[in-house]
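New to this. Please check this protein:
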Amino acid sequence: MLRFLTAGESHGPSLTVIVEGLPAGLPITSEQISDELARRRLGYGRGPRMRFERDVLRLIGGIRHGRTLGSPVAIEILNSEWPKWEVEMSAAPGEPSDKLTKPRPGHADLAGMQKYAFDDARDVLERASARETAARVAVGALAKALLREIGVDIVSHVVRIGSIATPDGARPGPEELGVVDDSEVRCFDAATAEAMVLEIKAAAKEGDSLGGIVEVVAYGVPVGLGSYVHWDRKLDGLLAGALMSIQAVKAVEIGDGMAQASQRGSAAHDAIAVDENFSLGGGYVRRTDHAGGLEGGMTSGAPLIAKVAMKPLSTLNRPILETVDVATGESTVSFKERTDVTAVPALGVVTEAMMAIVLAGEALRKFGGDSVEEFARNHATYVAHLGSTSSAARPA
């Protein structure tokens, strides 16, 4: 079982994450993790914080000489801005210098203050902040490294920012991730990317924010991860839950899920054919992939596809959203915390991490192994067995 726990606040001294369940012998370096964190920081429309913050890592447990030990892995991501916040975010007894009492609509501020009986929104927003996703991306780097041992690659790309969307069918393959990352909005279609930049500029001029949609695709996933046996083992549910847990995400679609609701079954489902060279599907292929690589809570061997929708950020550079000052009860506008115009390009990197974590966990459940060598060997045996049993079942 692969699991992780993050701790830390947005402006605290560091974020910490502990990852349990990785097999021994997985090659890992701090550079691998740093590269993923750098991808999360970029994208047109990000605020100045992303330009001057740098994620400094400390690998403090579970890795020796560049390989996992099979014990829990502990990672600390230091906050380069900590000296500016050391007094305000101190763990020592005391009082904040300036309480935030004008909660932002659309943020966790007010509900969190009510739930935990806080009189300062900072007690909520520091942990509710999307800064926490840096720790998830660090875990995702480990999960991706494990999945690469069995030939699985994960790619994300932006398909919508605001009102601008890519043409249907523009989808990068695993070898084109670099092309996506070279785009300042992480969009695979160059013409659409230019229009997205103009959309962001227009929103920035008005002090507003934009949401959007990213598509995340896993290639090389074998048939049979997940289960139809119990509701909490269905991979659709596990994946949707992981993606929905990302800050500001409001919807997740598997394959063509929304469109299928208005289609007839004859058009919505993926015909099955024989292809003895397709080992990931045991010699069977789907003619199309409307199901997004999942049937009955299990992978089919086709690419695993999810679309993830992010709402516009709730902090605006021109505070105009009506709220109430909880200290006085008076109507006012929400406070302004440093913000981005959009974080949709960064969302793609976080979705990759969360999909990788879910798939790595299910792969470990399916193939097991205390070492990476055993894990990869069990996977290879399973895929080979799929092909042999499927061939024997077909008529000559």
